Amino acid sequence: MFRSDSAPVTLVFTAERPNYCFEVRNKDDPSEFPERKLKLVREIYGAVLVWRGLLKCLLLSWNMCMFCVTFPVAEWVVVSCLIHRRLGQKPIWRHLVTDTILITGGAGFIGRYVARACLERGHKVRVLDSLIEQVHGDRTQADGLGPDVEVVVGDVRDEAALLRALKGATKVVHLAAEVGVGQSMYAVDRYVSVNDYGTAVLFQQLIDNPVKRVVVASSMSIYGEGLYKDPDGRIREDVVRTPRANESDPWDPLDEQGRSLIPVPTPEWKKPALASVYALSKYVQERLTLTLCPAYGMEGVALRLWNAYGPGQALSNPYTGVLAIFASRLHNGQPPMIFEDGQQRRDFVHVEDVAQAFVLALEHEKAPGGVYNVGSGQDRTVSEVAELLSQAMNRPMAPEIAGKARIGDIRHCIADISKIQQELSYQPGKDFAEGLAELAEWVAKQEAKDLVNEARRELEARGLVA
Ligand code: UD1
Predict the structure, then answer these.
(1) Model pTM score
(2) 132: helix, coil or strand?
């Protein structure tokens, strides 16, 4: 029992219930404490109990809410970490950090897919594109980029346009280039100017306005002839194509004993053999990137692309890739025109897979300093793709075999994609038949001028088809 005598009344507590006033007595006359006062004290104590109960309930609900919020977050973090470990992509915390990515030549075929893939990853995207007529026709605005992409119309060689486009950019994808192998053999000044001087101007600006990373689109054409093996199984890295002396000579390269060489997948370590102005200009782009980036504290990556295809390729550009040219011909009721004998082999890679490779090159921690082949991992002859495409477009038509080669073209080059698969977890996902069906469906809704004969005449007039 405890008594408090300092108050005007005497309060009595028990040890078992120290918060409960057991009895209140008038100090002068302990027996006559007014019942009214006792009631008041009890009411106050009751109210305190109710408030304490309410506070406890509130605290419990708060804890339950916090549990409901934190559990899924924790679960998300654990699952993401597992995915990250499995796929080896950028660290989880970096998903929260977005980049502003400048894509030069971003209004073109590959650029639009790369832009979309970057937006899906949460990055901001800006495009610099001069909308050249050969690709974009008479359009003055970039099509197919969507409202979330900021577009700067301008040439990559124009310093002022480049500076505007670089403002606030943290990474660059350099796609701006002229892309026709055959055309590069006569439009030499244009190809060297756009591809190489353009890259030089870009780096001149990057020296003063550095970004974290630059990914450049190089090309498989820098390999020249791909890797071969001879009939004894020896790997041949040094195959060079020479023009045929007679019409009866084989198209395939031969070894010293006149035996046909067999194409095998070409890895990144194969020495370059620059067989066209285009190849030369692409190699310069690649080397400028890999030389200047580390010198100025930037990360550089080069992707060597094989033959990209898919909806959205410029159908009226007779210097575009072979699949788009064939699609345009078939769409206009013309047979595909095949150079050589149609048995030349390439790797046709869907443009969505190319975009996947660019995203990995932009984000993956292992990519800096690297050179990577980008293909589907499956090779096909040009005749085979002509046949499959005419089936997909439901236009059965025998191709025209030119029996002549474009100067600068290589015979075979097929992709070894194991490096990008192992180091960056690249996984080409598009089945070729599915990709062709999609392309056919898209082409059916397009208008396409067939300018292939004009383009061929341009080459023939200069002796570039033989
Ligand atoms: C293409 C790209 C190049 C890219 C490279 C990567 C174009 C114009 N070129 O070069 O930018 O870096 O892939 O692999 O997109 N052919 C025909 N008939 C035609 C057109 C072409 O038979 O009407 C043949 C060519 O002779 C060649 C093959 O198809 O043997 C491929 O030609 P093309 O699509 O121009 O590709 P690449 O020269 O491989």
Answers:
(1) 0.81
(2) coil
